[in-house]
Model the fold of this input.
Amino acid sequence: MSADAVGRVIPQTRKSVMSFIQTGKIDLKSDNAIETAGGNTSTFTRVTFPTPFPPGSSVVVLPLTQTFNGPETPGIRIHDVTTNGFLIRLNEVYAGATKSDGKHTTETIGWLAATV
Done:
């Protein structure tokens, strides 16, 4: 739906699409320096979906930290999302003038993967 110039809601015609959703969690920690080179996934962990999504599906992954085990804020990177799984990495984020070393204790990361 969208709104016109006066804020009235205008229904929009949209083809009905069935979405598929899977969820999971993984315990991750980072013993490595922060990744600064795009595309370097050598320190990432592969997550395989319990059931592959249908071939040709467009899949998105939404990760979220479920625990608070380290004092610094963990960052989560996702890469190479396919119908079979994805790559994930945990490291600390930059915090203002303080540069993180990238290392972080074990945290539980929950994820939701869905077709769009």
The CA atoms of residues 80 and 86 lie 5 Å apart. The longest strand covers residues 104-115. The chain has a mean pLDDT of 84.
